[in-house]
Structures are given as C-alpha cells and as structure tokens.
Amino acid sequence: MELDSTEAATSWLEYGLENHGLELEFLHDSRPTRREVSHATLNVFTMSEPGSGRRKRSTPEELMPLHKGRRSRCKGDNNKKCCRHELTVMFKDLKGFEFIVYPKGFDAGYCKGRCPPRYNPAHHHALLQSLLWKEDRKRVPKPCCAPSKLDQLMIVYFDENQSTQLKVSYWKNIQVLECACS
C-alpha cells in the first residue's frame, strides 16, 4: 500500500501549521478497526531550494532498513510491485526428472514486479542504484525484482547403479523464499 502525504506536508509548510505528526486509521464498514502492521517503511522524498542551508548527512542504515526476513508474498492479485509468486513444479511433467521419487512436486516460487525507488532494496547498492535511476534514467537501469533468499530441496531418487537402493541429495538454491529489488 502506498500513501502520498505530500498534500498534508505542503499545507504544514505553506500555511505555517504546526506539525502534529501523521496518524493512520484503518476503517472496516466505516468503523475504526485495529490492524497489525509489520515491516512498515516510510520513504521521504524532499526537494530543497538552493541556498537553504546544509543538510544532515545520513548513514546507509538510516536511509534504508535492510531487507530482513520479509516473505514478500504478493498480497492480492493487483499487486504490481516486486513480490514472490507461487510456482508449483511437478517433476513427472519435466523431461529428464522422472527418476525423482520424492517429492513429487514443490513450490519453487518466482519473483516478479516493479521496483520503484527505495522499494524493498536487497542491499545498499540496490538502494543507491534506485536513487540514481530516479535522478537520471538514462545513466543507470532500475533495480530488478529477484530472489533475495533461496532454500534447498531434499530429493529422493533410485541409485543408478543399484536400482533397489534409494539415495538422498540436497539441491541448493532451488526454492525462492523471498524477493527484493536488486
């Protein structure tokens, strides 16, 4: 969800109104409701006028809370930002993978979606790249939606040399758990 608070902030500045902060109220059937919000991020973009004084320098940690433990699953069908989608893979349907006894299938997942400036950066370089792209779109490409956390998958199959023996193997980095802009 995105909320543009430019109008409110502009009125505080233009009309000398006292800034009492910003409060979000969630309504259900026109009545206030309690809502748990986790991993909220506030992105603030400002425009300073020349000669308005020095700005405080920010550390990378202040600029960006690093992508930590977010599942980044898509919420609703209309989510167009970078997120994880389900991708069910059935080994029997893939040529050359019929030898796998277990699992018959699994959710491999995939990442898809837009990466607007500062949205869910995987690392500090992605944040920097998104800000540079915002300033000059010809100079640098926009970050791409990509896996940021992968997991292994245990595969059980018959031994090629002893057809009555089962073997176990772990395929690394085959399941997408989380997505981020990179």
Automatic annotation (TrEMBL):
Q: What keywords appear on the UniProt entry?
A: Disulfide bond, Growth factor, Secreted
List the Pfam families hit by this protein, alphabetically: TGF_beta
Q: Which InterPro entries match?
A: Cystine-knot_cytokine, TGF-b_C, TGF-beta-rel, TGFb_CS
> Which CDD domains does the annotation name?
TGF_beta_maverick
Q: What is its main location?
A: secreted
Q: Which domain of life is it from?
A: Eukaryota
- Disordered, as annotated region: 47-71
Q: Output this protein's name.
A: Bone morphogenetic protein 6
